[in-house]
Amino acid sequence: MDSTKIVGEKIKSLRETKEISIAELAVRSGLAEEQIERIENNVDLPSLAPLIKIARALGVRLGTFLDDQEEQGAVICRKQESEDTISFSNNAMDLRTHMRYHSLSKSKADKHMEPFIVDVEPTEETHFSLSSHEGEEFIYVMEGTIEVCHGKKCHLIEVGDSIYYDSIVPHHVHGYQGQAAKILAVIYTPI
């Protein structure tokens, strides 16, 4: 199942339930009204940064957009369950995708971390826009090599290597020289 279309619908439903207009959500999140409309209507695939801003503006966790049901106790994610994916673009106003996220905890309630297995797709793109959001990220490389640009530095992270950084610093993650990779990513965003 591709969960991409669910995200826009959940954002719209949460916004309407909380009786927040698109204009008010735009002000709270710092995003353009048009961008929010395009995300809610599944026209654009959002990147993580705007999704995190929307989640904070709505007072919910990032994972709320992916959750099907919430479990209070321990949550186990079996291999076949992690095959459900969601795609994010590498630029919020752009339809190009370069990462497919497999949530490892989508039914866990009251969590503070969002763990994903991420398939980093090959790309011919060579210019990436850095983005930032509150919180922290931990990445462990399972296959291939990734390049993480964080602030003014770019780091090559190979199989078995990991990186942990503050995500408020502008950053971007992509496969080194456009190659495919697979990573374990854990994202923490305060509510």
From TrEMBL:
Keyword hit for DNA-binding: yes
Domain HTH cro/C1-type positions: 11-65
The organism's place on the tree of life at top rank: Bacteria
An annotated GO cellular component: cytosol
GO MF term list: DNA binding; DNA-binding transcription factor activity
Alphabetic keyword roster: DNA-binding
Keyword DNA-binding belongs to the record: yes
Organism this protein belongs to: Phocaeicola sartorii
Listed name of the protein: XRE family transcriptional regulator
PANTHER family: BLL2473 PROTEIN (PTHR46797:SF19), HTH-TYPE TRANSCRIPTIONAL REGULATOR (PTHR46797)
CDD domains: cupin_XRE_C, HTH_XRE
